[in-house]
Amino acid sequence: xxxxxxxxxxxxxxxxxTPALAQRRQWILxxxxxxxxxxxxLAPGRTTMRVQLHCDDWNDLPPSISLHDATGAxxxxxxxxxxxxxxxxxxxxxxxxxxxxxxxxxxxxHSSHVTDLWEPLKGSSKYSLGGILTQVWNAWLKxxx
Amino acid sequence: xxxxxxxxxxxxxxxxxDQFVKVSISTTAGFFPxxxxxxxxxxxxxxxxxxxxxxxxxIKDVEGxxxxxxxxxxxxxxxxxxxxxxxxxxGQVEIDWGPSEGGGG
Lengths: 145, 105
Prior knowledge:
The complex is a heterodimer of chains A (145) and B (105). Chain A is of the alpha+beta class and 145 residues long. In chain A, 25% of the residues lie in helices and 18% in strands. With 105 residues, chain B is an alpha+beta fold. Chain B has 2 helices and 6 strands. Mean pLDDT of chain B is 87; it is low at 1-7. The interface between A and B is medium-sized, with 37 and 27 residues.
């Protein structure tokens, strides 16, 4: 993807990640400036989790998703969660806990999933940037801590 | 202006208010309606309003999407094949709609 085209596509998709949506979902949108979406998830009784979607080469590549605490520091482990989306083991490429879910670059580059390709997923509503962020958020909401 | 148009615009008609809910749907493709709420009969299936939102917001596919409301500090999934009343919804209803959590590996 040409960088200008990736930036344009990114801009089109994040245009709807508005303050009104953030307010309703109890998100804090720290940034949605290409190529980064930086968003904190808040909920009563929960420790805030912050995720950063690094969207270089969107959408030829899915976003690389890193996990942070409220201050922006990288997490060394993931909060308790019944979903397998949050994987506390070291990713073979990043060496850090990661999002093990279709639509995450870390999923598609993990040795266990390299045959599960991004190509047929991209372009669908579920795997838009907002769709991926929503999936991660819904997984986080299922957890505790 | 017809009664139906009044309902879409959220304007009160002559019907009893408890027969209607005011509905706003939020997605990462936008809000439906764009601002405010639509006035919808309480017995109308939730999916009817969602289909209108999908069309208006240009959402290509909604497979695996869930509609939720926030209640008692948490989110509650709706049965979209049932009406608003059957989902124990009344008054002003803010629905969040989007893909459910993806499967991990």
